[in-house]
Structures are given as C-alpha cells and as structure tokens.
Amino acid sequence: MPSPNTKHHIPRLQQWLETIWYEQHWKAMPLLPLSALFCGISAWRKRSQIKHQRPSPIPVIVIGNISIGGTGKTPLIIHLVSLLQAAGYRPAIISRGYKGTSSVWPLLVNVDTLAQVCGDEAKLLSNRTGVPVIVGANRVEDIQYAHSHTDANIILSDDGLQHYKMAREYEIVVVDGKRGLGNRYCLPAGPLRESPSRLESCDLAISNGQSELTQHHMHVSGNIIRNIRSGKTQSLTGLSQAHLVTGIGNPQRFIDTLREHHIELLSITTFPDHHDFISNDFSQQNGIPTIMTEKDAVKCQDFEHDNLWYLEVDAYCNESFDIEFLEALKHITHE
C-alpha cells in the first residue's frame, strides 16, 4: 500500500515536546528544573483554591485527566449521561467552552448555538446528549447557572479536574491506554498537569484502552460515518479509500481506527486541537470521501462540500466501571 500524502499543520514546538514526552525521554532532562517549578506552583495553587471552595447546590462529578491532549473524556461523558438518565437522574454538563467567542458567560448551549460561539466540545456534547450544557471559564458560576436555569439534579464537569475552586463530590480520571503518562514528568518536561500520584487520590480511574495504570478500561469505537450535509450514513466496512482531515489532541488514535478497518488513507492532514476550520482546509479528489471526527464536524456544518463525513463513536466501558459508578451515585446523592 503506497504511503499517504501527509501534512501536519502542528507547531514544531508541540511536535518536539510530544517526541520527548512519549518517545525520546532522555531529551527531557534539561527541562526538569522548569517542571519542578511548575509542580511547586501547581501544588501551591491547589492548596490556595481549595481554601476558597464554596459548597455546590448540586452534586458535581468531574471527568478529567492529569495529562494534556485527548484521552477520551467526551465519549465517556456521553456514556455517563446515558447511565444517569437510565437511573432516573437529570444531568447537566458544564464545560469551559474553549475558544468559544460568546460575549456572554455562562452560556446555555442550544440547537442554534454555533460551535464557534460555545466551543467545539460543548456543541458536540449538546448534540449527542440533549441535556443542558453550560459553558464558561468560571466553573462555580456555571454550576450556579445550571442550578438557577435548569432542572438538573446532578452535574458532570467536562474537565476542570485542576479547577480546585470548584467543589466536587466525585472525580473520574481518564488515562490514554496507549500513551499512558508518557515519561511521567510534569510540564514542560512531560505531559502531566499533576504528579502521577494524583491517580491514587481520585475516586475512579479508567483507561481508554488496556493499561496497567487503572483497574477499569473502556474502548472508543464506531463503524458508521455520517455525511455532514445530507445526514446520509455509511458503514466503514464497505469503504476502501478515504482522505483524513482532523484537528484533535491525539490524531494517531483516529488514524489507527480507520486503518483497522482496512481503509487506504490517500492523504492525512492534521491540525492543532480545536482548529478553526475553513473551507480551503478540505480538498475533494475524484469523489473520494474525506473523513473527520465528530468534534471536527460541528465546526464544518456550513461548508459547501458534498463529500465530508464524520465518524460516530461511542465509549464502551467494562461492566465493573458502570457498577462502581452507579453504586457511588447512591452516596453522592445521599439516596
């Protein structure tokens, strides 16, 4: 199979850092003094913010990670919403709304809210779950807004693990099963926001893929692509060739998914996470589909291209994770 035409529009500094984080660990040594400084500041910030926590009017469950980059939080949150609803709860989601351009925060996302206004992850979560999604950098204000403007009786916080001003009843940490914790150093020598020991203090940890780091694991998969303009669906099984375009935190996992379906990728184009796509980012060649993630797709709804598709994925957790989570809910909500 010939090599695809590959274009990485990722800043060179980011590429270099990811190389030393996950491959050439010895190159991180000169950055260790900066990592020690980062860890010290983070620990001081955590202690300071915890002192100023205010009780939440609604139980809060945080779903986050201790490393930067994509780990699979979004599909896990969608899964947790389904579990909560099946158990009779009325969940709402709060999210930072990264790169959202709204002039008013907190913002309640609705069907007419553009991804560019509220942020791509918030728009995706709103589309997939149908529950209230409130975005804003101040998580405490987001919680108050959810309490005042929705009927939610439990909140899922999309990330915010290190936002210690926000009180929380339960913490779930997601780990990338393939990349793990990298070289296990804090930023900038490594990919970690907090030390590896943070996994021991969270309530529940789960890896996206098999990993010795956590007791529980999940896998994120999908076999259906959906056309952005027409809504038509197609199975990956019958697809032989495609172009791939994406702007997510860990594009290799997405690339591997398509290759596992024996799809020949004629071209691979990657952009930084949360990339603001423009129409010219896509090239239609000989009627071959261009496939992206669902997070990419929410920012491409108005493009005049007929052959843009996105892969629909879901998180599938091991049964023991679901059981432990549902059992914990009884204590979180004092049932």
Automatic annotation (TrEMBL):
Binding sites annotated in the UniProt record for ATP: 67-74
Pfam families given in the database record: LpxK (PF02606)
Root EC class: transferase
Catalytic reaction equation(s): a lipid A disaccharide + ATP = a lipid IVA + ADP + H(+)
Top-level taxon: Bacteria
Entry GO MF terms: ATP binding; lipid-A 4'-kinase activity
One Gene Ontology cellular component: plasma membrane
Recorded metabolic or biological pathway in which this protein acts: Glycolipid biosynthesis; lipid IV(A) biosynthesis; lipid IV(A) from (3R)-3-hydroxytetradecanoyl-[acyl-carrier-protein] and UDP-N-acetyl-alpha-D-glucosamine: step 6/6
UniProt keywords, alphabetically: ATP-binding, Kinase, Lipid A biosynthesis, Lipid biosynthesis, Lipid metabolism, Nucleotide-binding, Transferase
GO biological process: lipid A biosynthetic process; lipopolysaccharide core region biosynthetic process
Keyword Transmembrane: no
Enzyme Commission code: 2.7.1.130
HAMAP family noted in UniProt: LpxK
Purpose of the protein: Transfers the gamma-phosphate of ATP to the 4'-position of a tetraacyldisaccharide 1-phosphate intermediate (termed DS-1-P) to form tetraacyldisaccharide 1,4'-bis-phosphate (lipid IVA).
Family of the protein in this entry: Belongs to the LpxK family.
Descriptive protein name: Tetraacyldisaccharide 4'-kinase
Gene that encodes the chain: lpxK
